[in-house]
Amino acid sequence: MKQIDHLRRGSLSRQFFKTRRDGKIIESGPYFVLQCSLKGKKCSERIPAAQAGEVEKQVENFRLFNTLADEFVTLSDQITQWEGLADDSKKNASNLPSAKTNASRKPKHS
C-alpha cells in the first residue's frame, strides 16, 4: 500500500463514434472516458489520449489498493478472533480447579 502513489477510482473505457459521411461509415476515436460511482452518483470524465496510459495505471493502482485493504481487514479480523480465543482460554483456565487446590482440601468423612 505504501508504494502506491497515485490512484483513481473507476474504470477507463475506449469509445468510438461512427458517423456516416458521403454514404460511408467513418469510425473516429478512440476517445477515453473514466467512469466511476461516488457516494451513489455516477460520474464520467473524458481523458485525453495522451493521458490514457497514465490514468489506466492509476485505476489499476486503485484496484490493487482495494485488494490489499481487503486482505488487511481479513487478516486483522482473524488476528482479533484468535486473540479473543486465547483470552477466553486463559479465563476458562483460571476457573478450572487445579491439582493444588484439590490436594489441599480436607477429605470428607462419612
Folded structure, characterized:
This protein has one domain. The N and C termini lie far apart (71 Å). It is α+β, with helices and mostly antiparallel strands and 110 residues long. The protein is built from two helices and three strands, in the order βββαα.
Sum up the structure in keywords.
single chain; 110 residues; alpha+beta; 3-stranded antiparallel β-sheet; 2 helices; 3 strands; 45% helix
Biggest pleated-sheet summary: 3 strands, antiparallel
Instruction: Tell me the β content.
Output: 25-35%
Helix content: 40-55%
Number of helices: 2
Task: State the gist of this model.
This protein is α+β, with helices and mostly antiparallel strands and 110 residues long. It is built from two helices and three strands.
